[in-house]
Amino acid sequence: MTNYDVAVIGAGPGGYVTAIRCAQLGLKTICIDKWINTQNKASLGGTCLNVGCIPSKALLDSSHLYEACKEEAASHGIGMTPGKLDVPAMLARKNTIISQMSQGISGLFKKNKVDSLLGSATIVDKNTIEVTTDGNKEIVKAEKIVIATGSVPAQIPGATIEKSIVDNEGALDFEAVPGDLGIIGAGVIGLELGSVWRRLGANVTILEMVADFLPAVDREIAKEALKIFKSQGLDIKLGTKVTDIENDDDYVSVTYEDQSGEDELEFEKLIVAVGRKPLTENLGLETVGVELDDRGYIVVNKQCQTSVDNIYAIGDVTRGPMLAHRASKDGIVVAENIAGKNKSIDYQSIPWVIYTWPEIAWAGATEQELKDKSISYKKGKFPFLANGRAHAMNCAKGMIKILSSEDGTVLGVHIIGPNASELISEGVAAISKKLSYTDIIDEIHAHPTLTEAFHEAALDIENRTIHI
Ligand code: FAD
Ligand code: NAD
To answer: What pLDDT score does 346 carry?
Structure first.
């Protein structure tokens, strides 16, 4: 048994980043994780690396390339004989990326002298963790404990996860393209994985309970997104209530109600993507007195400290954006506070991205939030239709919108367009550093780039765009 300064439970983007930063700050650190992959091997990286961010983006990129070969190559003057789609090869590429990156985390642990332990952790007292692997138990002692156990998919009645009805994990591993694919939930996972399988040839229907499309997104951007996604062939049914799910051997039948009454659809596969819930099971939280809120999240203060002063919690297991970069930022703050600094968390300028094509990205306040709070604001926007680089990329769709206060401070940036996930960084910098839109006007943006649309959106606040 070794005594540690810090024991981190969970090696997702929250936990492994915490462990590395703690070690960099001179703290003797161990990271415990229980993840075993389908090849029965330990795989560091959590949900994000194993069944989330990275595999979904790998398949988004593969399917985007496939669709571009089919639909766009000819317009570039490239003749393509129809290529055979090899789904197992696509999945193998994705799995190679996962294992390379997971081994990369092991390498980072070695480099930074973080000890790594495979097993399921239970906190038995405020300085003691019992770790179980294959029935063997090991005790870890630590001054500070960081809980970074993440989240698991939420479920709905009647939809037992198996071969035909799947959550994100199964939806990243279909061995062949389903003919008819149903998805429950038009949120981030529904849209991203729906896009993957639609591009590869599935007929995709998404059943969404709420009548508004992407309610957290700026209304103007969400409206544009819905129009584009429908034109791509995603059948998005809003305001539907799923009332029954029957799983036959050959198909899954879903009964739902909407404004026009009751209807039934049959699918070869059904993805359930209705949100995620915090993972706190078997952690021993009741024993040590770590408080949970009414929805099962661990309660923390702005320093990510739980109700037990030497136990911290970060990422998806606590309330807040369920995003990898948020979990990592929490981890850095915790590590630095444990090392005696006084850092706190602020999600004001956190970027959100939906990796459809075009992508959607935003940071800061939406227009409706400003209206609801009676904050007067200025607005500038610019369509990618008037951006040369977007045309060169064959994606002159969407817009960039900047919202500022009356004195010019940037309050929100909203993008639907090519590479929005990269473009949003300029918005994050402006919001977090409280820059004015005039600072964006004063910056020189390279030509020809998509960032010129950023410049033009700022110019639009003063009604002086050049290219429109
Ligand atoms: P996790 O990544 O869930 O890691 C928790 C770890 O704790 C796991 O490895 C688990 O094995 C371990 N663990 C749990 N309990 C125990 C225990 N008792 N003992 C030992 N170990 C334990 N976010 C983005 O920002 N960008 C994206 O593009 C994105 N795409 C996503 C796509 C999908 C399909 C999904 C499902 C999620 C996506 N997310 C994305 C969300 C992102 O994956 C999560 O926000 C992020 O993984 C949370 O990190 P975490 O460290 O809090 O938890
Ligand atoms: P989500 O909250 O984004 O969307 C869930 C959707 O399901 C919502 O629109 C909700 O109204 C709907 N819904 C809930 N119950 C329903 C029901 N019974 N019938 C029909 N619709 C129903 O959740 P998600 O898509 O499952 O993703 C989970 C989390 O993972 C998100 O919080 C997100 O932050 C994270 N994630 C992030 C990314 C990214 O950053 N690009 C990608 C994937 C996942």
So the answer is: 86
Q: Is 32 in the pocket of ligand 1 (CB under 6 A)?
A: yes
Name the residue of 207, 274, 325 to mutate for ligand 2: max ligand atoms within 8 A of Cβ.
Answer: 274
Q: Catalogue the long-range contacts made by 255-263 (C-beta closer than 8 Å, 24 or more residues apart).
A: 256/207
Token pair 């970074």 is found at 148
- Please classify residue 254 by burial: count the beta carbons closer than 10 Å to its beta carbon, then call 0-12 exposed, 13-18 middle and 19+ buried: buried
Count of residues making up the chain: 468
How does pLDDT run across 263-284, given as a tens digit for each residue? 999 999 999 999 999 999 999 9
CA distance 439 to 424: 16
What is the rounded CA–CA span in Å between residue 312 and residue 333? 11
Distance 324 CA to ligand 2 centre (A): 15
DSSP symbol at 292: B
Instruction: Count Cβ neighbours within 10 Å for each residue of 165-189 and write b for 16 or more, e otherwise.
Output: bbbbbbbbbbeebbebbbbbbbbbb
Task: Quote the pLDDT of residue 233.
Answer: 97
Where residue 28 falls (left for φ over 0; alpha for ψ -120 to 50; beta otherwise) is: beta
Name the one residue in this structure whose structure tokens are 């590395």.
Answer: 20
In the reported structure, the alpha carbon of residue 152 is separated from the centroid of ligand 2 by a whole-number distance in angstroms of: 12
Reply yes or no on whether 414 is catalytic.
no
Q: Give the global pTM.
A: 0.98
Percentage of the chain with pLDDT > 90?
Answer: 96
**How would residue 84 be classed by pLDDT, with cut points 50, 70 and 90?**
confident
Q: Distance of CA 132 to CAs 120, 283, 290, 313, 412, Å?
A: 5, 12, 21, 21, 47
Q: At CA 128, angle to CA 125 and CA 132, rounded to 5?
A: 110
